[in-house]
Specification:
- By secondary structure, this protein is mainly α.
- It has one domain: Na+/H+ antiporter like fold (Up-down Bundle).
- Helices cover 67% and strands 2% of the residues.
- The protein is built from 17 helices and 4 strands.
- The strands form 2 sheets. Strands 1-4 form a two-stranded parallel sheet. A two-stranded antiparallel sheet has the order 2-3.
- A hairpin with an 8-residue loop joins β2 and β3.
- α1 crosses α5.
Length: 444
């Protein structure tokens, strides 16, 4: 797809000297670092709302009014003639999460066009980390459930990282990550989202109907043509996006995939070209608050409401093979997969960690990556069916594993809190008051 006029980077980072040793997980240019920080600030607010929605659902589902929560989640609305008389829980998973995946599609394309993933030398470490963080948890889950008929379908549940939940944990514990770790975590989560999208489209599509899927190409093509011409009129784009979503939903492919395809259709500025934001930035600015502040928290509210059944019920649930596979995959598999893959990529490229960082920092971020919530809950519903006993067990496991990973990550991050605070302070010094911190101009 055509991208907007390329122009040089503002305040580009100084290239390494000839023969210099490459550095892994170093801070990027100031535009990249500031943009990552802005995204993470917005996702932090969304993460707090996500946690509130999940807690409200858990309390309600385990109260005397649990039946009213179930009735609300199963309330069906929508036009039956179009086969869209769906429950509110399904609307949240298929409809609202399409907004989340649209924003993810925008972010993915931006990373491939003008972000870290455009440069193979920079992309190899976060890509390898994300792949390792998918393969190892899936293998752990499969190993635990080899003798458990029907449970292997949930192999992908512990493979997802929830960036909003992870950032909410950082906000709660009052910990700030240095720029290099923030960028690494964000890029890793973006690649993780891409892998999750492929998994959902390939492995969790039942009864594929080719006709509606082919018909979906018509409004998708019209949407693509419109945005390529920089048209941003909601009265034209919204119906085209809705038609694409409805036809993909009717095809049997999970409807959230349509959000990614629509996001990929939007042109991305390779470099800042003229005044004002590009179209992708415009959509991201408008829709990220909607995604983080409404779509994901509402989905969490409808997805996280599972009846635990007291201490005995919790013990029974977490000792189920499905739950053990999910918890071990999130807590252990993610940490091992991300860390080992990062180490292998660094050794393969003959790079060195940034001088300010330690491998303990990588391990801490890897453990933080074990916080899997939104996409993990969605995959659990796709694997076992919303409200089924195994889906309930998977939900309890995702919640438990995410909390355990958050606790472990907090402990590890606290071990380096002074060093991280010092780095963050250095990265905020702007002695010449030109709006760009001095470390980015020195190329440190």
């Amino acid at each position: 797809m055509a991208d907007e006029n390329p122009m040089p980077d503002p305040a580009p980072q100084r290239p390494p000297a000839p023969g210099a040793t490459a550095r892994a997980l170093d801070r990027r240019s100031w535009p990249e670092a500031s943009r990552a920080a802005d995204i993470l600030r917005k996702e932090t607010v969304g993460g707090v709302l996500l946690l509130i929605g999940a807690l409200v659902a858990l309390v309600w589902a385990n109260s005397a009014w649990a039946d009213s929560y179930t009735a609300l989640r199963e309330l069906r609305v929508g036009p039956a003639a179009w086969h869209l008389d769906l429950s509110l829980g399904t609307w949240a998973a298929d409809g609202l999460l399409a907004v989340f995946f649209f924003v993810a599609g925008l972010e993915l394309k931006r990373e491939f066009v003008s972000g870290d993933l455009r440069d193979p030398r920079r992309a190899i470490v976060p890509v390898a980390a994300a792949v390792g963080g998918v393969i190892v948890p899936a293998a752990v889950y499969a190993a635990v459930n080899l003798g458990n008929p029907g449970a292997l379908g949930g192999w992908a549940i512990p493979t997802a990282t929830d960036i909003a939940f992870a950032l909410a944990v950082l906000a709660v514990i009052g910990h700030s990550l240095p720029s290099a770790l923030r960028t690494f975590l964000l890029t890793l989560a973006v690649v993780d989202d891409l892998i999750a999208i492929v998994i959902i489209a390939v492995f969790y599509t039942d009864d594929l109907s080719v006709g509606p899927l082919l018909l979906a190409l018509v409004p998708l093509a019209a949407f693509t043509a419109a945005v390529q011409r920089r048209i941003r009129s909601w009265w034209l784009l919204l119906p085209l996006a809705a038609a694409t979503w409805a036809l993909v939903h009717a095809s049997g492919v999970h409807a959230t995939v349509s959000g990614v395809l629509l996001g990929f259709a939007v042109p991305v500025i390779r470099r800042r070209a003229g005044p004002g934001p590009g179209l992708a930035e415009h959509f991201e600015h408008r829709l990220r608050p909607l995604s983080a502040g409404l779509a994901v928290p509402v989905f969490a509210f409808f997805a996280a409401g599972v009846t635990v059944g007291g201490v005995s019920g919790l013990v029974s649930a977490v000792t189920d093979p499905v739950a053990l596979g999910v918890i071990l995959g999130l807590v252990g598999g993610k940490a091992v997969g991300i860390t080992l893959a990062t180490y292998a990529a660094v050794r393969f490229t003959r790079a060195e960690l940034d001088s300010d960082l330690r491998w303990l920092d990588v391990v801490a971020v890897a453990v933080l990556g074990g916080i899997g919530f939104t996409v993990s809950l969605l995959i659990g519903e796709l694997a076992f069916g919303l409200g089924t006993p195994r889906d309930d067990v998977a939900k309890i496991a995702v919640l438990t594993g995410s909390v355990v990973a958050a606790v472990f990550a907090t402990v590890l991050l606290r071990l380096r809190v002074r060093a991280h605070r010092r780095i963050c302070e250095e990265e905020s010094v702007d002695a010449d008051h030109d709006g760009v911190p001095d470390v980015y101009q020195r190329g440190d």
